[in-house]
Design goal:
This protein is 59% helix and 5% strand. The protein is mostly helical. A two-stranded antiparallel ribbon has the order 1-2. Strand 1 and strand 2 form a beta hairpin. Helix 1 packs parallel to helix 5, helix 2 packs parallel to helix 3 and helix 2 runs antiparallel to helix 5. The protein is globular. The two termini are 22 Å apart.
Length: 156
């Protein structure tokens, strides 16, 4: 398996497990949050989806965006399904962009986010995107534990 294929597999596997988790959240818990400064469960789902779109654009830009207007902000927070449906074309474009890269691109293309403290190879950046989503998976599992909601196993 080539590096690009492994990166796609990792991104798809992380998302598959998240969809399993996200769709298991009871409707009455979607707007729960552990404190007033935290994101709600549904806001966290949106954050993951919107962040992926931002990361996609920053990869295409080879660095941070000077201005980012989120297409997600104008959408009402209704349900996990609505969020996933809205994000689907952005996700498809993101994966198509990754598939378009060569193996050499993974180490030769630099993503300059020095404004927040780093410059990374494209391959590193793509792995960081999956890691970001995975961190929020753990955070959301903790939310559900704290709220006393049964959690599904993401370890299938």
């Amino acid at each position: 398996m080539k590096s690009i294929e492994l990166i796609i597999l990792n991104l798809e596997e992380v998302r598959r497990r998240n969809i399993k988790l996200w769709t298991s959240i009871p409707k009455g818990t979607l707007h729960w949050k552990p404190d007033d400064k935290a994101m709600s469960c549904l806001e966290m789902v949106r954050h993951v989806l919107d962040s992926e779109h931002y990361y996609h654009l920053s990869i295409k830009n080879q660095g941070s965006l000077p201005v980012y207007e989120s297409p997600f902000e104008k959408q009402p927070l209704i349900s996990v399904e609505a969020e996933l449906n809205f994000a689907e074309p952005y996700r498809r474009d993101f994966l198509e962009t990754i598939i378009s890269f060569s193996e050499d691109d993974l180490s030769n293309i630099k993503i300059d986010r020095s404004n927040i403290g780093y410059i990374r190879d494209l391959g590193d950046m793509l792995l960081r995107i999956a890691y970001h989503e995975s961190v929020h998976t753990g955070q959301l599992l903790d939310y559900l534990r704290t709220a006393g909601v049964p959690r599904i196993s993401v370890w299938d």
